[in-house]
């Protein structure tokens, strides 16, 4: 997660940063890992705020919605 994406998501009506104890959801913060639906990630990418992608954890069906080149461009670089 990035602060830019969390703010973007909240502006779209999906507040991922506020804890929701009723659902045992602690809220997300920058640096956290979270599974996003491909459509929301693409929407964020089009707005210039897509969070990094862990390619090895990305389902191949995401390619039905997102170009591989876009995922590779946003791939999280690990040492």
Topology, element by element:
Layout lengths: L2 H9 L26 H9 L21 H6 L6
How is this structure best summarized?
The chain has helices at residues 3-11, 38-46, 68-73. It is mostly helical and 79 residues long. The mean pLDDT is 95.
Question: What does this protein look like?
Answer:
There is one protein chain. With 79 residues, this protein is mainly α. It has a single domain (3-73), classed as Multidrug-efflux Transporter Regulator, Chain: A, Domain 2, CATH 1.10.1660.80. The chain contains 3 helices and no strands. The protein has helices at 3-11, 38-46, 68-73.
- What count of helical segments does DSSP give? 3
Q: State the secondary-structure class.
A: mainly alpha
Low-pLDDT segments: none
Estimated radius of gyration = 13 Å
Find the count of extended strands (DSSP E, 2+ residues): 0
Query: What CATH first level would be assigned?
Result: Mainly Alpha
């Amino acid at each position: 997660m990035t602060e830019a994406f969390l703010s973007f998501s909240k502006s779209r009506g999906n507040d991922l940063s506020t804890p929701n104890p009723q659902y045992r959801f602690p809220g997300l913060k920058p640096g956290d890992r979270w599974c996003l639906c491909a459509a929301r990630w693409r929407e964020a990418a089009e707005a210039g705020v897509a969070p990094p992608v862990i390619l090895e954890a990305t389902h191949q069906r995401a390619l039905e919605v997102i170009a591989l080149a876009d995922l590779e461009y946003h791939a999280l670089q690990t040492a």
